[in-house]
Amino acid sequence: MATLREWAQGARPRTFPNAVAPVLLGSGAAAELGGFVWWKALAALIVSLGFIVGVNYANDYSDGVRGTDDERVGPMRLVGSRAASPKAVLRAAVASFAVACAAGLVLAATSTWWLVVLGLCCLAAAWFYTGGSKPYGYLGFGEVAAFLCFGLAAVLGTELSQAGGISHEGVLCAVGAGAFSAAVLAVNNLRDIEGDARNGKHTLAVRLGDAKTRVFYMGLLVVPFLVSAALSATVPFAIFSLAAVLLLVGPGMAVRRGAVGPRLIAVLGATNAGMLVWSVVITAALFFN
Question: What angle do CA 244, 247, 248 make, to 5 degrees?
């Protein structure tokens, strides 16, 4: 039976910035419209964290029962390592999704029921990433889903639930957050490219190949800083978010120079750190604009 520490590792806390950053940005965009509501921001954070923990456990379950997690370099896999039974991990995924849905229903009831539709789409995306008979994550569409769910949906859903509308600043923030989330997944899949190819998991990294995936990752990192420049036209202090590039120079160079395996785990962590710092600065700029 898995220990509490192993369950915590299985939740993959290093991915949590992907959940926190879009809620910060969406709340900042709502504040810029004069509609920030603190308890709705907290509820949105519960939704976002519930979804990311749920999708991490769901991936652990689905990949584990398929055997594609038997040889991995990255974080703890509960099913693949035999630390927990598939049924236990599936229950943990369902419980996490249930918490997210409960908080989402509160937001929908106090703002707009369109959030239910958005939530159901994200729930389906979370499960069918590696679940079902034809998981789209095995077909190379994972980065697209990350961009849509932890970029557009999370940022704009947070803004909509608080301010009752969507601004162009919110859209720009959503694009930046989505690009960061896609970059995190891209480098994660780059790390696992050889094992995934052997196991028939045709991620985008497997389809593009090593060299092109590295270029793709670098391109994704450029997008948030283009967003910073665009935002600074209406939110002047957003320009200070360019400082986050300092956290990404090292990871970018490591990827460019051919880092593989465990060396990419550090790149993954630094990419998440860069996303979080970028989001905090943008959010502060929006609040004080």
Answer: 95
